[in-house]
Design goal:
With about 700 residues, this protein is of the alpha+beta class. The protein is built from 17 helices and 37 strands. About 30% of the residues lie in helices and about 30% in strands. Helix 10 (about 410-425) packs across helix 11 (about 445-460) and helix 12 (about 530-540) packs across helix 13. It binds guanosine-5'-diphosphate. The site of guanosine-5'-diphosphate has 21 residues, from helix 1.
């Protein structure tokens, strides 16, 4: 039974570069809070957070997981997230559910590129942050060097709130710089004498940083007055909530050192749902925007931020209650889908297990099974107050594969299983390419689509092969021309007669195909015009160069002739089709290829290499935007060159870059490349 109030809730996401120890830290906090009685290890594949077979195999998280615990009088909902850029969709979803973030940094590796990305994500949502310097027991661990790197990257607002006692194999604990209490293996002790001077010095720096964020304290500090511990804690909390301070803590998740004091700090310094600015939602009834009050007695508003397919309970929707209370066995309104939803048993989810609860209060996070209409990003509320929260901004997945089912049985289940997979993970998309006929699955990178394919097999029993997708080329004409075709056959009795003049002209890129007519004097009688149009339309899906669809041209029927007896729809249809083919040949046809708009973000020092590589890929660099040590390069590049960019970028940057890609427009393929594509298409056509 929940006995906590909204004020006591802390919703926090663990963010880091992959491998800094988020999963180990979440395991350690669960252990410290008495939720588990054995400290699981990532390397043994037995943590509460990484339970999926895909995670155990990779020894890394691939999806967010909920790890709620009770700590003293607080409910702490820890959300563990994946560190790999491929699974960033999970981070984006998690950040919509939490009020604060914990950036985990390895004391030996320091600030890594993933740290910078996570910082950026937390910053973009203005989330108050704490930093946890982990792995203090590791060889080469250095708190002070790491702190310096943190301050160098993220600014002086990052201040040490603790200092270590011992390091590497002799790492034993820490000193809390506000209370000047030492924690040796988390037992409270006195600060060891040799560390006193250093502790005083660091405390002074911390107090000064806190005082700078608060006018009253600044005066006291400058006047040399003593500032009380509670006063400092309160000011550090305020500074953290306002984003003016980011306190830095330390410990070892693996040795479970510093974890209990860190839980205290989470409760002390991170916001409760009541401390955050109200979330704005659109009220469909009034069409206005409304700040959503967090009070438990205000009407219900909850956001579904994650959907997963649980092997036992089926579809499970994770949601965060922003206002009101959600009750088990109740009726709610899904304003996004404009439909009612029946809520069955509510759960609190912990890793792969669920604990039934009668209700979830404002600010809390929980789950419900088997919602029929609801998907990720939907708002659940009351019908009288239909609210919609801002959608979750999942990025456009840039990496695509063609999906080929292995057997007929796999084919039958492919569509519905892929749809469910995409429902679970909105950063995964699937579509059928009308031009190539392929089913294309897109994700954030190769690991993402591989995990998707493993899941497809494990959860839905569907076996697939993944291939490089075909490029959907198109064909068009470049000059205006006129073409005549007379279809005339005299075979015994009834003959065939259709005669047309077509004008073909290029249209602007992206405007598609258009058929018009301006026949005068009944040269082609009205009733045959639709047949001509039909014939022309039949020729549009297969151009003359390499059988790719024709686009961006206008075909005008302007003249022709008919025979009172022999003319028929069929004859005019044939004439239309043949005149089109003739005309296209005359009109200097060309191949078009999709051009993608690509945004690549890498640490500054890789900018040159990335641009060099792009130049070799026929890309046009549009701009470079440096920010906080990372540069985003924007470029337009042909899809044909970017199909395996995830792999290229990884090898250029040793895995330190991310990119997004979206369709921009079609452009003419350069002649020498077009020749190869046409030759290739001819070969394939001859074979088949
Ligand atoms: P995540 O990817 O951020 O979730 O990191 P994990 O928790 O999976 O940890 C990555 C690796 O670092 C694993 O091999 C852990 O055993 C190890 N690790 C995590 N925390 C610590 C720590 O405090 N000390 C040491 N020495 N190793 C750690």
């Amino acid at each position: 039974m929940q006995q906590y109030k909204t004020e006591a809730i802390r919703n926090v996401a663990l963010l880091s570069h992959s491998g800094a120890g988020k999963t180990s830290l979440s395991e350690a906090v669960l252990y410290s809070a008495g939720v588990v009685n054995r400290l699981g290890r990532v390397d043994d594949g037995n943590t509460v957070s990484d339970y999926d077979p895909e995670e155990v195999k990779r020894k890394a998280s691939v999806q967010l997981s909920m790890l709620p615990l009770l700590w003293k009088e607080n409910r702490v909902n820890v959300v563990d997230t994946p560190g790999y850029a491929d699974f960033v969709g999970e981070v984006i979803a998690a950040l919509r559910a939490v009020d604060g973030a914990i950036i985990v940094i390895c004391a030996a590796s320091g600030v890594e590129v993933g740290t910078e990305f996570m910082w950026k994500y937390a910053h973009s949502r203005s989330l108050p942050r704490l930093i946890f310097v982990n792995k203090m027991d590791r060889e080469n661990a250095d708190f002070y060097r790491t702190l310096e790197a943190i301050r160098g990257k993220f600014g002086k607002k990052c201040v040490a709130a603790q200092m270590p006692i011992g390091s590497h194999t002799s790492f034993q604990g820490l000193v809390d710089l506000i209370t000047l209490k030492a924690y040796l293996k988390d037992r409270e002790e006195k600060v060891p004498d040799p560390l006193k001077a250093q502790a005083e010095k660091l405390r002074d720096a911390l107090v000064e940083a806190i005082a700078e964020t608060d006018d009253d304290l600044a005066t006291k500090y400058l006047e040399g007055q003593e500032i009380g511990v509670e006063e400092l804690k309160a000011a550090l909390r305020r500074g953290t909530l306002e984003g003016k301070l980011v306190p830095v803590f330390l410990g070892s998740a693996l040795q479970n050192i510093g974890v209990a004091p860190f839980l205290d700090s989470i409760c002390q310094y991170l916001p409760s749902p009541k401390d955050t600015a109200p979330v704005v939602a659109t009220n469909l009834a009034t069409k206005g925007k409304e700040p959503i009050s967090i009070n438990g007695d205000s009407p219900l508003a909850a956001l579904v931020f994650k959907t997963s397919a649980d092997p036992y309970v089926g579809k499970l929707s994770l949601f965060r209650v922003f206002s009101g209370t959600m009750y088990s066995d109740s009726q709610v309104w899904n304003a996004t889908k404009n439909t009612g939803e029946r809520i069955g048993q509510l759960f609190i989810v912990r890793g792969k297990t669920q604990e039934p609860v009668p209700q979830l209060i404002a600010g809390d996070i929980g789950a419900v099974a088997k919602l029929s209409e609801t998907s990720t990003g939907d708002t659940l509320c009351l019908k009288e107050r239909p609210l919609i929260f801002e959608t979750i901004p999942f990025s456009n997945p840039p990496y695509s594969v063609a999906v080929h089912p292995k057997t007929k049985a796999d084919l039958d289940r492919l569509g519905s299983s892929l749809a469910r997979l995409c429902d679970e993970d909105p950063s995964l998309r699937v579509h059928k390419d009308q031009d190539t006929g392929e089913t294309v699955l897109s994700g954030m990178g190769d690991a993402h689509v591989e995990v998707a394919s493993e899941r497809l097999k494990r959860k839905f029993g569907v076996d697939i092969n993944l291939d490089v997708p075909k490029v959907p080329y198109k064909e068009t004409i470049t000059i205006k021309t006129q073409a005549e075709y007379k279809h005339k056959k005299q075979t015994g009795g009834h003959g065939q007669y259709g005669h047309v003049f077509l004008e073909l002209e290029p249209r602007p890129r992206g405007s598609g195909f258009e058929f018009t007519e301006r026949v005068v004097g009944g040269a082609v009688p009205r009733n045959y015009v639709p047949a001509v149009e039909k014939g022309v339309s039949e020729g549009i899906p297969e151009g003359v160069l390499a059988r790719y669809p024709l686009v961006d041209l206008r075909v005008t029927l302007y003249d022709g002739s008919y025979h009172p007896v022999d003319s028929s729809d069929m004859s005019f249809k044939i004439a239309g089709l043949q005149a089109l083919k003739k005309g296209v040949m005359q009109a200097q046809p060309v191949l078009l290829e999709p051009i993608m708009n690509v945004k690549i973000t890498v640490p500054d020092n890789f900018t040159g290499d990335v641009i060099g590589d792009l130049n070799g890929k026929r890309a046009r660099v549009l701009g470079m935007f440096p920010e906080d040590g990372l540069t985003t390069i924007e470029a337009d590049a042909p899809l044909a060159e970017m199909l395996r960019y995830a792999t290229a970028l990884r090898s250029i940057t040793q895995g330190r870059g991310i990119y997004t890609m979206s369709f921009a427009r079609y452009e003419e393929v350069p002649a020498h490349i077009a020749q190869k594509i046409i030759a290739e298409a001819k070969k394939t056509a001859e074979k088949s």
